[in-house]
C-alpha cells in the first residue's frame, strides 16, 4: 500500500512529558496521566495545553477516594477548598469497579470518574523539551464541569486563540469554549454544544463568511459515534449540523471515531488527522482531506491508519494501545503531531506532509 511509504519519525525524546514531570495540584494528590494536549504556536514558543488527570492518593485499601469539584466553594476560599473527596466502598455489590477510569452501577451507568482533569500550560522553544507550569492554568468551574475538563483543541485566529474542550459532569459531556491571547489569562465563553458531544475542533479561518467546527455526537440507542460538522456566524451560535464521515466496518476505525487535530489548510484541501478505534479498543490516527471551499465534503480518506500504537509507551500505560491527538503544527514539509500515549503521557511524531498528501491523492483516484 502507498500509505506504508509515509515516513513517520517518533521523537527520540518520547515520551516528552510523563506524570512524574507534573506537580500535583494538592500535596496529598497524585498525577495519574498527562495527555491529549492542545497545541499552538505563541510568539517563539510551542504551547501545549495539557490535560492533567489526578486524584487523591489511595491510602485506604477498602475504599476508592474519588475527586469531584466542590460546588459549595466560594470566591476567596483556599485553593484546597476547590475540590472534595468522596469515599467509595469497594465491597459494595451494587457497584462495578472493573474499569479503572470510572465507577458504574450494575446497570452500567457512570456514577463517578476515578480522577478529575484540569488544563495546564507547558512551554518549549524546540518543541521537545517543555517547561510545565507549577499550578493548573484552567480548573473545572461550575456544576457542568464538576467531574473535570478534558481534551482541549486550540485554534488560532489572528491574535486570539480559541480553545474547545470537554466539560464533564453527571449531566453528561458537553463542549466548552475558552479564549486567550497570551496563555496566561483565559476567558470563559460558555458551553457551545450540549451533551452528549465531544472532539470539537474549530477551523482556523472563516470559509465563505462562516465559521466551521467538527464535532462528535455520542448517540444513545440509534446512531454511531461519528464525525459531524456545524457552522456559525459568530463562533458562539452553531447550527446546520450534518454528518461528515463515518465508521468503516472491519477497518481500524469501525467502533468509534472523532476529530483529532484542528484541520490543517493545504493547497489541495483541509487535512484532517482524526482518531479511530477498533473492536479491541486500539486507538490509531488516520487522515482525510476535506474540500477547501466546502469543508462538509470529504474528497479523500486513507484506507489504513497513519499511525498505530507500537512503541512501549503506546502499548502499555493507564489505558494501553492508545494514540490520541488533539493538535499538530506544520514545520517546513513536516507535520509534527503531539499525542496522548495510553492515556498516560505526551509524545510527538513527525510525518512527511507531501507523502501524506500523495497517499490521500492516491485514495482519491481509487474513488
UniProtKB/TrEMBL annotation:
Family matches, as Pfam families: Glyco_hydro_130 (PF04041)
An annotated Gene Ontology molecular function: hydrolase activity
Keyword Hydrolase: yes
Family, similarity comment: Belongs to the glycosyl hydrolase 130 family.
Record key words, sorted: Glycosyltransferase, Hydrolase, Transferase
Keyword ATP-binding belongs to the record: no
Name of the featured protein: Glycoside hydrolase family 130 protein
InterPro entries: Glyco_hydro_beta-prop_sf, Mannoside_phosphorylase
Amino acid at each position: 500500500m502507498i500509505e506504508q511509504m509515509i515516513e513517520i519519525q517518533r521523537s527520540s525524546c518520547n515520551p516528552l512529558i510523563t506524570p512524574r514531570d507534573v506537580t500535583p495540584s494538592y500535596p496529598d494528590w497524585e498525577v495519574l496521566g498527562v495527555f491529549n494536549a492542545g497545541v499552538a504556536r505563541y510568539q517563539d514558543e510551542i504551547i501545549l495545553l495539557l490535560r492533567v488527570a489526578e486524584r487523591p492518593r489511595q491510602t485506604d485499601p477498602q475504599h476508592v477516594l474519588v475527586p469531584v469539584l466542590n460546588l459549595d466553594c466560594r470566591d476567596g476560599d483556599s485553593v484546597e477548598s476547590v475540590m472534595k473527596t468522596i469515599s467509595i466502598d469497594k465491597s459494595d455489590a451494587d457497584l462495578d469497579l472493573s474499569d479503572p477510569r470510572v465507577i458504574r452501577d450494575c446497570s452500567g451507568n457512570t456514577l463517578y470518574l476515578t480522577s478529575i482533569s484540569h488544563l495546564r500550560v507547558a512551554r518549549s522553544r524546540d518543541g521537545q523539551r517543555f517547561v510545565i507550569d507549577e499550578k493548573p492554568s484552567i480548573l473545572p468551574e461550575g456544576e457542568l464541569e464538576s467531574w473535570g475538563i478534558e481534551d482541549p483543541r486550540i485554534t488560532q485566529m489572528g491574535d486570539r486563540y480559541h480553545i474547545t474542550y470537554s466539560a464533564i459532569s453527571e449531566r453528561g459531556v458537553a463542549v466548552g469554549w475558552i479564549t486567550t491571547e497570551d496563555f496566561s489569562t483565559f476567558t470563559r465563553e460558555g458551553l457551545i454544544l450540549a451533551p452528549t458531544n465531544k472532539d470539537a475542533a474549530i477551523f482556523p479561518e472563516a470559509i465563505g463568511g462562516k465559521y466551521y467546527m467538527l464535532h462528535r455526537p455520542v448517540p444513545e440507542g440509534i446512531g454511531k459515534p461519528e464525525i459531524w460538522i456545524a457552522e456559525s456566524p459568530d463562533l458562539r451560535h452553531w447550527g446546520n449540523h450534518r454528518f461528515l464521515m463515518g465508521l468503516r466496518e472491519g477497518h481500524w476505525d469501525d467502533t468509534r471515531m472523532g476529530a483529532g487535530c484542528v484541520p490543517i489548510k493545504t493547497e489541495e484541501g483541509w487535512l484532517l488527522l482524526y482518531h479511530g478505534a477498533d473492536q479491541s479498543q486500539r486507538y490509531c490516527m488516520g487522515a482525510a482531506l476535506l474540500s477547501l471551499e466546502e469543508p462538509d465534503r470529504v474528497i479523500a480518506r486513507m484506507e489504513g491508519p497513519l499511525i498505530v500504537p507500537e512503541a512501549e509507551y503506546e502499548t502499555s500505560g493507564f489505558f494501553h494501545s492508545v494514540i490520541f491527538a488533539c493538535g499538530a503544527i506544520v514545520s517546513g514539509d513536516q507535520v509534527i503531531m503531539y499525542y496522548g500515549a495510553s492515556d498516560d503521557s505526551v509524545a510527538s511524531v513527525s510525518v512527511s506532509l507531501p507523502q501524506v498528501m500523495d497517499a490521500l491523492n492516491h485514495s482519491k483516484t481509487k474513488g
